[in-house]
Amino acid sequence: MTTEETARPVLGKRARQRQAIESEILRVAREHLATEGAAALSLRAIARDLGMVSSGIYRYVESRDELLTRLIVDAYTSLAETVHDAHDQVEPADLTGRWDAIGNGLRSWAIAHPHDFALLYGSPVPDYTAPADRTTQAGTAVLVVLLRLLDDVDRAGRLASPPAGLEESLATAALGPMLSDDFFAGTGIDATALAQGLAAWTLLLGAVTSEVFEQLGPLPDAEGLFACLLVSASGLFIDAD
Prior knowledge:
Largest sheet: none
CATH architecture of the largest domain: Orthogonal Bundle
Structural class: mainly alpha
Protein name: TetR family transcriptional regulator
InterPro entries: Homeodomain-like_sf, HTH-type_TetR-like_transc_reg, HTH_TetR, MT1864/Rv1816-like_C, Tet_transcr_reg_TetR-rel_C_sf
Order of helices and strands: HHHHHHHHHHH
Distance between the termini: 46 Å
Keywords: DNA-binding, Transcription, Transcription regulation
CATH class of the largest domain: Mainly Alpha
CATH topology of the largest domain: Tetracycline Repressor, domain 2
DNA-binding region: 42-61
Number of helices: 11
Mean pLDDT: 92
GO molecular function, one term: transcription cis-regulatory region binding
C-alpha cells in the first residue's frame, strides 16, 4: 500500500453510498445532456430515470445550477487529464511534438465527449452563470499546459517572429494587464508572445469546434484537415528548427 493510499481517509458506508448515488446522478445527467441539451436539464427528469422520488434528488444536488457546475468541473477535469497525459509523454525538448500532443489530446477528447465539449465551449446555458470560485481552476488546467509550452518556446529562443502589424504597443495595451495575474507568475513571456500563443490556441479550439459541431459540413478527411490546421497554428508561435 502506498503512502498516499494510507494517508487517504477511509469513507464510511453512508459516505460511500452518497458518493455512489452522486456518481449515478452525474451519469444520468450526461445522458440528458446528449438527448435534451444543457438548457433543458431537469432534476426531476433525472430523478425519474433513477427511480428516485423527485424530492429525494435534492438531498444530493441542491439545484439545476449546482448540477451544471458539477458537470462542467468534471468535464474540464477529464479534458485536462487527457491533454496532460498526452503532453507529458513527449520529450520536453520536442516543442512542436508537445504542441501536437496538446492539439490531438483536445481533439480526441472532444470527439469522444461531444456533449461535454458542447457544455464547455458551446452556447451559454440560459439563466446560468458558472461560479468562478468553482470552475476557474479546472477551466484553466489545459491553458496551464499551453503556458508551460509557450514559456519553454520563448526561453529556447524558438518564438516565431510576430506577424506584420502586431506591434508591441498593441499587444501590451490589450494583454499587458493579464500578465500581472498570478497565473503567469514565474514565466518570462511578454504581451506579444502571449498574443501569439493565444492566437494559436484560438485557431486550435476553432478547428476542434468546427469539426465537433460540423460547421464546415461533411469533411472528406477531417483528420487530415485538423493536421493541416494544427501545423498552421504551431507556426503562429513556434519557429521551425
